[in-house]
Amino acid sequence: MKGLSNKRVFITGAASGIGKATAERFYAEGSELVLIDMPTLEQAELASLFPNRMTYIQGDVTKAETLEKIKNESAKGMDVFVNNAGITKDATISKMTDEQWDAVIAVNLTAIFKLSRLASEVMKAQGRGGVILNAASIVAHYGNFGQANYSASKAGVIALSKTLAKELGKDQIRVNVVAPGSIATAMLANVPEKVQAMIADKALLKRIGSSEDVASAYAFLASDDASYITGATLNVDGGMILG
């Protein structure tokens, strides 16, 4: 990808799954990484994967102290911010608690708002533009049984990102969304094989996506190859939304 070498790329939820694959992709492209995630046993593995050009920030993206750490690190520069962190706490509406709703909205939407605001302020001050990429999901388009909180948060991310694209375009800051379908992460690994086969069959490409598929979308949208793309939502779903 053009224009990713030597860029400082911040990635939340970077210790596993899509976030980790995204870090690997940007590292391969020559980017300098600032990886953000909860305290995790995988830190040693991350250090071995990225022996240089990597800074790790431990913290919860919903906490003010984590945002302060990110702000402090941004003093060294910030070119791309990937808001990848997300959680699920599924239940039907009759059983969903206030705590389940609040927790998902806090991580999946409010934290993205706060971190996008922080990133935009840094990028404006630098005066060279930048890229903000936000994680949604194809359930943002049509909802999903038992996921009122998750679906609402991801739909909110798309609307938020379109608004930010309108506000920040004059500063040459591009804001785009990646909306994955069913991706082979640890969460899906716990689903029975029969159910996984049914999920794969819903995609036009007849397979479940990989974390690398999503990482490639992030890398493209961050690169100079996408320099005239902003306010867009890229579905990485194998055509599932059309199935």
Automatic annotation (TrEMBL):
Residues in Ketoreductase domain copies: 7-186
Native organism: Bacteriovorax antarcticus
InterPro entries: KR_dom, NAD(P)-bd_dom_sf, Sc_DH/Rdtase_CS, SDR, SDR_fam
Recorded family membership: Belongs to the short-chain dehydrogenases/reductases (SDR) family.
Leader sequence residues: none
Pfam families: adh_short_C2
Protein name: SDR family oxidoreductase
